[in-house]
Amino acid sequence: MELWYLSNVTLLVLLMAGSSFALTKKWLPNTNFDNPMNWEGGHLPCKNDRLVLPEDSPAVYIQADQTIQELVLPMSGELILGDNTVLSFSQSVDTSPGCGKDARYVRKDAKKWLSPENWCVTDDSGDCIGSTANLGLLDTERVPCMYDEAIFPAQKEFYVDLESNMNLFVGKLTIAGVEYTTSSFATFRRTPRGQSQFISDDGGSVSTLTVKGTCSEAFGCMCGNEQLQKVICENKICGVTNCSSPLRPTGACCDMCGAWLAFGYDRSFRMEKLKQDLTDSYLKGQTSVKAMVSVQPKENIQVVFTDKYDGEQATQVAKTFETNLVKKKRDFGITEVTFQKFSGPDVVPTSEPVIDNKDLGSGGIAGIVIAIMVILAIMMVVGFMLWRRRTGSSGFSIFNRAEKGGDLELGASIGYDDFPGINDGGDASMRGFDNPMYESSGKNGVYSDPSKVDPTIKFNPVYSTEGIEEDSVM
Question: Which of 218, 282, 389, 458 ranks highest by number of CB atoms within 10 Å?
Fold first, then answer.
């Protein structure tokens, strides 16, 4: 699994510098003449080489004196010489291995703004911080966040793919030593130089780039690249993890082994205090474990722990950090903590909310009581439904009582065979059952001829006496 580390002490200082929590991120690719990656085979041209620039070559910047034998330029292209730079031609022979041939410039494609591999975090001198430490960044935060400073160094030429129809944000933008605002960069983009450096590689409308300024929140600000994660991760190549149950935290392009914590916070939370405690008390002396802290939506903080192996070392550090964080959460301004492990052999990720009973006020207790009452009510309803199914009962009924000392049975007391003509083609209307309210047995033919009513039949008591007499006379 590929891991990306940042320098230890230096990065911690940068992450805590001021109240903005902004980092300075420098663009790495360039189209310079002296960049070996821009030439076929990864080798710089010799002085007796024949230089060939292809038709679709970006602008090539020569920042130092160069001597070559021959130069083949495209019909449409650009070769930029730095101040006081001299390009000389010579017929002298260089006997070094690989010299005396065609040196082809192979850099053609624009590098994507949203690729984490094209940026690095820098120190105050502008140098990229090394890769030996414990405090790192998730993939979405390796690209400039909305409050970070994005720098394109001087003495370099760039070919940047800003994608199309997207909204990109930075806190500060500096190109070749010149600081740009949103409007001034838009103006620069319309110049020939700007159009040659910042493009949309898919031919669509170039994305807008907004310069927002710094974050003023003491508890930190979200990166702002969360909605761009799918695009950021498109060109990320993920390695194979060493654990059976990896997980992909928010902001990561690849699965990881280790553990993460998520917790809410109140207005007293201070990001620099948390990071200082994390580094001094838990990461110091660790050779393989690193942590990544990020602000998430809905006022949540995510801390991801991972290592270079199966994640067990990272999980142990995370568990210790979680235990102590719960004990000291009032000191940090933290409201609740959730721990999740995603490492080790045969481990199933589980979410274990950590609850501190001391924080349960009357509202919390009332909520628990109401929840218990609702659960009991649901259990009673389910039990009643099961009882109905077992007994065959359709519910509470006025017939569900004993009559004349015996059990009342519903259904036909006279079988179909007792009626003449039913089974031999007789009238199907003879089929019926005894109404228990009439307290009498069925009579043959009573259903087939309504005019033949037996006066001994008792009528429904809900009718009046007069009704009974009139019906009897009928």
Answer: 282
Residues 364-388 have pLDDT tens digits of: 566 777 888 888 888 888 887 877 7
**Which position has the token pair 């998520």?**
262
Q: Which two tokens stand for residue 177?
A: 């030593």
For residue 134, which of 279, 347, 328 has the smallest C-alpha distance? 279
236's CB contacts (< 8 A; 6+ apart) are 116, 139, 253, 254
Q: Are 53 and 73 in contact (CB under 8 A)?
A: yes
Helix residue ranges per DSSP H, 56-206 = 139-142, 182-189, 192-197
Q: Report yes or no on whether pTM surpasses 0.90.
A: no
Exposure string of 180-190, with b = 16+ CB inside 10 Å and e = fewer, is: beeeebeebbe
pLDDT digits (tens, 9 = 90+) for 154-181: 999 999 999 988 999 999 999 999 999 9
Residue 399 and residue 424 in contact, taking contact as beta carbons nearer than 8 Å:
no
Side-chain-facing half-sphere of 285: CA atoms under 13 Å: 4
**Residue 368: exposure state from Cβ atoms within 10 A (0-12, 13-18, ≥19):** exposed
What is the C-alpha separation between 284 and 303, in angstroms, rounded?
16
